[in-house]
Amino acid sequence: MTAVSNLSYLHTPPVRPYIYTTVTQIARENACLRPNQEILIIRELDGSRYSLTNARLYQQAEQLARYLVTQGVKRGDTVGLVGPNSLEKAIGSLGIMLAGAIIWNANINLKTAQDVMAQIQLLKAKVMLVDCGKDNCFLPPVKAMLDQRNAQTNSTDIKVTYLRKTDVNMSETLEHIQSLQLYQIELPTIYPEDDAILLPTSGSTGKSKIVRHSHFTFINCPSSKYSVCDKLPQDNFNEKVFSWMSKIVPYIIVQGQPSVMLGSDITMNSANAGFIWQILKEEKCTDAWLQPFVINDLLDLPKYVTEDGFRVRSIVVTGQMIDNFYMGVIGRFCQKLMIIYSSVECCPLAVYSSTDVNEPLKAGDVGRPIPGVEIRIVDQQDVPIEKGLIGKIQVRSPYAMKKYDGNPELTKKVFTEEKWYRTGDLGKMSRNGNLVIVGREADVISRGCKDIYPGTLESLLREMASIKDVCVVPVPDKRLLEEVCVCFVSSGQLNPEDVKKFFEQKLFKEQTQNNLSEIPTYFLQFQAFPEVGNGKFDRKTIRCDAIARLGLTKTHASMNK
């Protein structure tokens, strides 16, 4: 009889063997076996529709790869890629990989020239592919980025190829490259361990870090059709941009089915919720990956919108904690709601799914580990703790990153000697064996001797009907060092006093001293929250704004949390 441990450890074994191949080989097979199948579809707000077939994607990308080789690109080099959601950018992504190079989705929204320089110097890119979008809308920031770089280095050795015609360059476009005689150019052999892409982290805890992943990750990651996991849906619709982990071109290729995206100029707001649902119906999407605020907007649509009976198989949420409110999509918009716990560093880690709208969802519940992944909860000394206790979440995954680029010290710091990755999240194991996230280590508020988890309070406040967004942050206090400030955005008639009364009523109902000590002290209403690059709230800026509005000082609390 197997002994049952009371320690906080979860593991789901793989159900299939790993596949040893590359993204480029899968793209080649797709082009041969299903040449006329659409692999990428982009929809615009005006109703226009653009698509790539497997054959066209591979043929144009292969020609681009040969061109990159003529420009001096070698296996293992980094090639920058800048632009919006577009077919040209998809071709650019595969072209870079076929040349044996590594995709770097360059961030042109960095705030200072120093940030731009830091990325370029760190990644040592000598070639950059640029898609300036429709009507050259991306051209000004691209030019500014390159001008800043050249001014500081007094060098122009980055070769820039514009994938569409611009005022800057009218010859080396993707269209022109397709007409070149490059058949004699040989492409390098690529291996599963070769690096495929560099991805930025969200930057929600400070400056973004650059994560390196191999071809093996994308082939075997749980969202791949070759995956060792049968639980995750294919990424059929995703409103995110190409630089997001769940929507990059390598994933689209290995999933092997039509992937629908929105043009980058479409604003994700309540006014466009009906348009998004219409696109899902027109494209006959089976699964949709949506951010929580998009789901909130869908739930606000009139009931007649779904009277035709169309439902997607699943709606998938990732990147943020959600609560029972979002279960309302089951039956009305989808058959199943799925929550995926993931990180750029380790890809999907755990999944929660439900088909029962009456099944209560505990805020932060992310279910069980993805096949092949181990999860444990540890104390400050990295020692596993008992089930039910809150501690640090560590994961061990075959899909983990290779390293943080240019930061070997941080890479070493985030992994234990046993290859456990320190996620920076706090959580616990529930009674039914699920992982429950309670917040980030850096976000914990220390009020006197009491640790308060913002995520728990935020989930509680989202039960209010007129709350649109909420962010709980620490502010300085001379006596307790830190106090709790609730920052909220209202979708109706709501004021700070209403929110305070709600908290008092909810926490007093628990009738425990532990819960009473969590009642926030300050309540501030915002018109909107600033965000970082991936759509998450910019907690650092929100905290600074709250401190300024309350007239407090930074003297008695660390601003580096």
Summarize the structure.
With 561 residues, this protein is α/β, with parallel strands linked by helices. The chain has 15 helices and 26 strands. The strands form 5 sheets. The chain has an 11-stranded mixed sheet with strand order 1-17-18-20-21-16-15-14-13-12-10. Strands 7-6-4-5-8-9-19 form a 7-stranded mixed sheet. A 3-stranded mixed sheet has the order 3-2-11.
CATH arch. level architecture of the largest domain:
3-Layer(aba) Sandwich
Rg for CA atoms: 24 Å
Percentage beta strand: 25-35%
CATH class of the largest domain: Alpha Beta
Average pLDDT rating: 84
Low-confidence stretches: 509-516, 556-561
Quickly count the domains.
Answer: 3
The CATH superfamily of the largest domain is: ANL, N-terminal domain
Identify the strand order in the major beta sheet: 1-17-18-20-21-16-15-14-13-12-10
Spatial separation of the terminal alpha carbons = 47 Å
The percentage helix is: 25-40%
Question: Structural class, from secondary structure content?
Answer: alpha/beta
Q: How many β-strands, per DSSP?
A: 26
Report the principal-axis shape: globular
What CATH calls the topology of the largest domain is Rossmann fold
Question: What order do the helices and strands come in, and which of them pair?
Answer:
Elements (H helix, E strand, L loop, with lengths): L8 E3 L11 H11 L4 E6 L5 E5 H17 L7 E5 L4 H12 L3 E4 L7 H11 L3 E4 L8 H15 L5 E4 L11 H5 L16 E6 L9 E5 H6 L16 E2 L10 H7 L3 E4 L10 H10 L4 E3 L2 H8 L12 E7 L15 E10 L3 E8 L10 E5 L4 E5 L12 E6 L6 E2 L3 H7 L6 E9 L5 E6 L4 E3 L2 E3 L1 H8 L5 E11 L3 E10 L5 H15 L2 H4 L5 E5 L12 H12 L11
Parallel strand pairs: 2-11, 4-5, 4-6, 5-8, 6-7, 10-12, 12-13, 13-14, 25-26
Antiparallel strand pairs: 1-17, 2-3, 8-9, 9-19, 14-15, 15-16, 16-21, 17-18, 18-20, 20-21, 22-23, 24-25
Helix pairs in contact: 1-2, 2-3, 4-5
